[in-house]
Amino acid sequence: MATIANSAGARPPIHLLAAESDLVAGLALRAEQQHPLVAAMLLEEIERAELHEPDTMPAGHVRLDSRVTFIDEKSHQLRDVKLVLPAEANIAEGRISILTPMGAALYGLSAGDSINWPDRTGNTRPIRIVRVAEPEE
Predict the structure, then answer these.
(1) Which domain holds residue 43?
(2) Is residue 115 part of a domain?
């Protein structure tokens, strides 16, 4: 299985909302047959995450409905996306599903974090989070 790691090989710490992580874990478990790599990545990340209630969640971490600006360090392409549930995903409109390799890689990270993520072809791509905008409540 591919792992998400920064250039030093260590994965950056991640912070998640406890209730949201339960929802995402349920999605991952239901998607194991169709998307085994992404499901395993999500479950592994949720397992190692620091979980929070809404009033203790540190600001600036990627969660569902966050807008994320990141740079692909290999292509130097800057992208701005919104992390969403699968039913809301639309690549053309910049909404990526939590059940994609990129969605799983972004989940729980904050601005300044750098990671390597497996793309759809199995190649590892380095990305750096530039900005995270909180979901609009």
Answers:
(1) 15-133
(2) yes
Distance CA 20, CA 24 (A): 6
Number of domains into which the chain is organized: 1
Does residue 34 lie within any of the structural domains? yes
CA dist 112 → 49, 71, 83 (Å): 17, 11, 18
70 is a domain residue: yes
Count the Cβ atoms, other than its own, within 10 Å of residue 67: 17
pLDDT digits (tens, 9 = 90+) for 54-81: 999 999 999 999 999 999 998 899 999 9
The CA distance from 100 to 104, in Å, is: 6
- CB atoms under 10 Å from CB of 30, counted, come to 12
Task: Please report whether residue 3 resides in a domain.
Answer: no
Mean pLDDT of 12-19: 92
Which among 10, 97, 103 is positioned nearest to 48, based on CA atoms?
Answer: 10
pLDDT at 7 over 70: no
